[in-house]
Each structure stands twice: as structure tokens, then as C-alpha cells.
Specification:
The complex is a heterodimer of chains A (282) and B (230). Chain A is an alpha/beta fold and 282 residues long. Chain A has eleven helices and twelve strands. Chain A starts with a helix and ends in a 7-residue tail after the last strand. Helix content of chain B is 78%, strand content 0%. The chains are: A alpha/beta (282), B mainly alpha (230).
Chain lengths: 282, 230
């Protein structure tokens, strides 16, 4: 093969590979939105279940970028997403108050659970009080994995330490407490590998496959309630926001149809998320 | 990608989601190498054949840039392409185009540094001949690139290896969007975080196999070319 033909062949291969995704991109850019959401909604498989239903109804493709809640809100703040779908109410309210979001709609909830090794070195299994359990973990210096990534789950965890009267960022921090700075799945993998306690969301836990010796140790405390909200990024701040499609997504997910789609998502018969768009104060 | 499937099942069934991910990975990394070659080879040749003050420093920096951390490149490209950033109006963040840009930046120094070394070695061999022919600098560069073309394939393969293997840059600028910007490496990261380690490892095997195939093709082309060109 002479060099010129070699070059042409290479160029042809690259161009043929180039055209397929490029065309797909054009098509999807007609009717699509970017939703920045949390690792828990993606890792749990919820979006894989509900988005095809939304697309079938409206023709709008939803591209989900999954990040921790802090980063997901920042993506919205920079105008790189049309909608944010997260779970840290105070951060969400600040996002709207600062003018980056139009309005926050409650969508659904699930709950956090305290997960730990079956051998239960801190002896807290079966208790209902998460605050007492955390205090015991700290007193016994039992290994604990923290997300440490400013996610919704991380904020919830920090809040619980505060309620428990543990100064986790300061005096009470010790080698037993490890911040890994990663997503929910990574935190569960780390806890599983090191037989540590970890605060997680039930959705990710139910779909998680590498449990090793881990099990739920505390659940059902109303302090473990985990509310999700959805917000349209403010088109006045970022004119690139596709407000019609974004609003269509929000309208659908809080409608009875969207809410039913959320309730219908189950793993081994367990419902992962509980729709509550109509609930006041959620 | 369907849950509860092993990587072997996905390959044997030619799972459409897996095929799409493989195609996107190849498309992004090959495009990045192609663009990096357009910049890197001439740049390497230029540094190899010219003498200027600070040339040694330039070579050291170029060589050092081969070790650019993907996550840093990803972050910088993210900030540039973000709507709030200077190039935000293009609207290409979270698209394959952004991933190609990030990988091209990663790969360019690798190709340029390796091309410089190759061409400089060849230059010391050819110097007297080229001087005797009394041709201009552009002709010299083209002649050297032409004669070094088979060795330069190795530089391109090194660049491709880097691009195909990295996850740090593409996950930041692509966003790992299902069916749109999910590549082999970001899919592996996702399956790991889902705790599906067997599937993640299986996908890793598929990726390694792909890289081997690309290298085998390049080797075959080189062999055929050498036989033809002598």
C-alpha cells in the first residue's frame, strides 16, 4: 500500500466513524435537555426506568449528568444544565434565592440508612435512633466512611453528627473517620472492603451489588428522611437554558403520570423512591 | 446497559448499548489522535530542525507535558467550555466534541515529543545529504516526516493508548451521559460505583482487547507499507 492510499484509507475510516455519532448528535440536539442530578438517582437505576417513558410521551431526550448535589447545583449555576434534580433542601432553596433557579418543586423521597458490618463492632444494630448510633460509633471509634464530597448524603451525614453533638470536623475527628470524597457507590465499595459503617441512601443500597459483609444497621428514624427536589435553571441568568423542554420535564415528573413512574420503579419488589410532589412542606 | 448481564454476554449478544459505547470510545480517541497529529508532528519536526534560544527548555517542557494529568486537563477544558466560561457560547460542554478537545490536548504533547525525537535522530543521519541537495526548510521537514512515517506510527499509537485509557478528562467534560457521552472508561467507572465489579472488570477486558486490535491493525499496516515502500 503506498503512503497516499494509506493516508486516504485511514482518513476514510476516521470519517466513517465520525459521521455516525455526529449525526446522532444533530438529531438529539433538536429536542433534548441536560439534567444535572445526583449519583444516587443514577446509581440506583431510577433514570433508566423513567426517562424512556418521558421520551415516549414528549419526544424530549433527557441527558443526565450525575454528580454530587453540590457539584450538580454548581453545574446549574454555571448554566451547563437546564434542570437540576437534587436532594439537599437548604442548598436548593439557596440556589433559588440567589436567582439561579426559577422555582423548586418537591418530587419524591426515599430514606437514608445506616449501613455497617454484620459483625456490628459498635453494637448498634436494630436501634431506631440514628443519633444515638452515631454517638456510639464515635465513642467506640468504630470505622466510618464519609462521602466527604458535599453531596446531599454528605450534608445529611454532617447534620446528623451535629445533632449527635459530635464535632466531626474538629476535636472528635479521628483515624476511625475517613472522608473519601467520592460518590455513593464508591463509599459503599470502600465500606464493604474495610468493614466500616457508612450512611447511604436506600435506593443505591438496594441496587448495590458488592455488599460483601455489609447490612443495614439502623433504619426507620424520621431523621433519616431524604427529600428530592427539581428546579429549572433560571433562563434570565442563562439564556441558553431550554426552558420549554426543561419545564415540560418538571411538569411531567410532578404529574400523576410521572409520579406513578417513580412509584413503579422497584428492585426485587422493593420500591426505591416514594413520590410526594403534592405534599406541602416537602 | 442492561443490568444483571455479564460482559461476556454483552459481547456475545453484540449488545447495542455496548456497541454504541465502543464506537463512541474509538471515535473520540481516534479523532483526538488525528487532531493531535496535525499539530504535534509539525511541531515536533519544527523543534527538531530549528535552533533557537531556550530550545532545551522547550524540549524539557514538551517532554514533561507528556505527563499532563487528565483530570486537570478535563477541569480546564470544562471551565473554558462551560456556559459561564469564555468559550461557553459554542455550547459543546457535555458533548463528544468537548471530549475530543480534551483528549487532543492530552495527546498532542506525547505525539510532538516523540515526533521530535524521531525526526531529530533521522536528521542527524540525513543532514549531509539534505544539505548537499540544497533544498529549503519546508522541503526538508516534509522529506524527514515522509521518511520517518513508519516510526511516527509508534508516536500515534502511544497517543491513542493514552486517549483510550484515560477517564479523568472525558468524565468531566463529557458528563458520562447514557447513550451520548458514555465511553468504555466512564462506563467502567460507573459500573464500579454501582458495585457491579464483575461487569466493570469484563468491560475492562473488552477495552484492553480493543486497544490490542487497534495496535495489531497499525502494525499490519506498517508491515504492508514497509514491504511496499521498501
Amino acid at each position: 500500500m503506498n503512503p497516499r492510499r494509506l493516508f486516504l484509507a485511514t482518513a476514510a475510516i476516521i470519517l466513517s466513524g465520525l459521521s455516525a455519532p455526529a449525526l446522532a448528535q444533530d438529531k438529539s440536539q433538536e429536542k433534548s435537555i441536560v439534567v444535572s442530578s445526583t449519583t444516587s438517582t443514577t446509581d440506583s437505576g431510577l433514570f433508566t426506568h423513567i426517562l424512556p417513558l418521558f421520551k415516549a410521551k414528549t419526544g424530549i431526550e433527557v441527558k443526565v449528568v450525575s454528580q454530587g448535589t453540590g457539584q450538580a447545583l454548581d453545574t446549574g449555576r454555571r448554566g451547563d444544565a437546564d434542570v437540576v434534580f437534587v436532594h439537599a433542601r437548604s442548598q436548593e432553596e439557596k440556589f433559588v434565592a440567589d436567582g439561579f433557579g426559577v422555582k423548586r418543586f418537591p418530587v419524591m423521597y426515599n430514606d437514608f440508612i445506616l449501613i455497617g458490618p454484620k459483625s456490628d463492632p459498635a453494637g448498634i444494630k436494630g436501634g431506631k435512633g440514628v443519633v444515638a448510633a452515631l454517638k456510639t460509633i464515635k465513642d467506640k471509634a468504630a470505622p466510618f466512611i464519609s462521602r466527604g464530597d458535599k453531596s446531599g448524603t454528605h450534608s445529611a451525614e454532617l447534620n446528623l453528627w451535629k445533632v449527635a453533638g459530635v464535632d466531626i470536623a474538629g476535636a472528635d475527628k479521628g483515624p476511625w473517620y475517613k472522608e473519601i470524597g467520592q460518590g455513593m457507590g464508591a463509599a459503599l465499595n470502600t465500606a464493604s472492603a474495610s468493614n466500616a459503617y457508612v450512611l447511604g441512601d436506600r435506593g443505591t443500597w438496594l441496587s448495590f451489588k458488592n455488599r460483601g459483609d455489609l447490612d443495614i444497621v439502623v433504619e426507620g428514624d424520621n431523621k433519616l428522611f431524604n427529600q428530592y427536589g427539581v428546579i429549572l435553571v433560571n433562563p434570565e441568568k442563562h439564556p441558553s437554558v431550554k426552558k420549554e423542554f426543561g419545564q415540560a420535564f418538571i411538569d411531567w415528573i410532578v404529574s400523576s403520570e410521572g409520579q406513578k413512574a417513580i412509584a413503579d420503579y422497584k428492585i426485587n419488589g422493593n420500591q426505591l423512591f416514594f413520590p410526594n410532589a403534592g405534599a406541602s412542606g416537602a | 446497559m442492561p443490568t444483571d448481564a455479564s460482559a461476556i454476554d454483552l459481547v456475545l449478544r453484540a449488545d447495542p448499548a455496548l456497541i454504541a459505547i465502543v464506537k463512541l470510545s474509538l471515535f473520540v480517541s481516534l479523532s483526538a489522535v488525528f487532531m493531535a497529529a496535525l499539530v504535534g508532528i509539525p511541531l515536533g519536526a519544527l523543534i527538531a530542525l530549528t535552533r533557537f534560544p531556550g530550545r532545551d527548555a522547550a524540549i524539557v517542557i514538551l517532554n514533561a507535558l507528556m505527563g499532563l494529568p487528565p483530570v486537570v486537563v478535563g477541569l480546564v477544558v470544562y471551565l473554558l467550555l462551560s456556559r459561564a466560561g469564555p468559550l461557553g457560547s459554542f455550547g459543546i460542554l457535555f458533548t463528544p466534541a468537548a471530549m475530543i478537545v480534551a483528549q487532543a490536548i492530552l495527546v498532542t504533547p506525547i505525539i510532538a515529543a516523540l515526533a521530535r525525537q524521531t525526526i531529530e535522530d533521522l536528521w542527524s543521519e540525513y543532514r549531509d545529504e539534505l544539505a548537499a541537495l540544497n533544498v529549503g526548510p519546508l522541503r526538508r521537514v516534509l522529506t524527514l516526516i515522509r521518511d520517518a512515517r513508519f516510526s511516527l506510527v509508534t508516536a500515534l499509537l502511544a497517543g491513542f493508548g493514552r486517549a483510550a485509557a484515560e477517564v479523568g478528562a472525558v468524565i468531566i467534560v463529557g458528563g458520562n451521559i447514557d447513550g451520548f457521552t458514555r465511553t468504555m472508561t466512564t462506563a467502567i467507572a460507573l459500573e464500579t460505583s454501582k458495585g457491579d465489579l464483575p461487569l466493570a472488570i469484563g468491560l475492562g477486558m473488552v477495552l484492553i482487547a480493543l486497544v490490542v486490535v487497534v495496535n495489531a491493525l497499525a502494525w499490519a499496516v506498517r508491515r504492508a507499507g514497509e514491504r511496499y515502500a521498501g
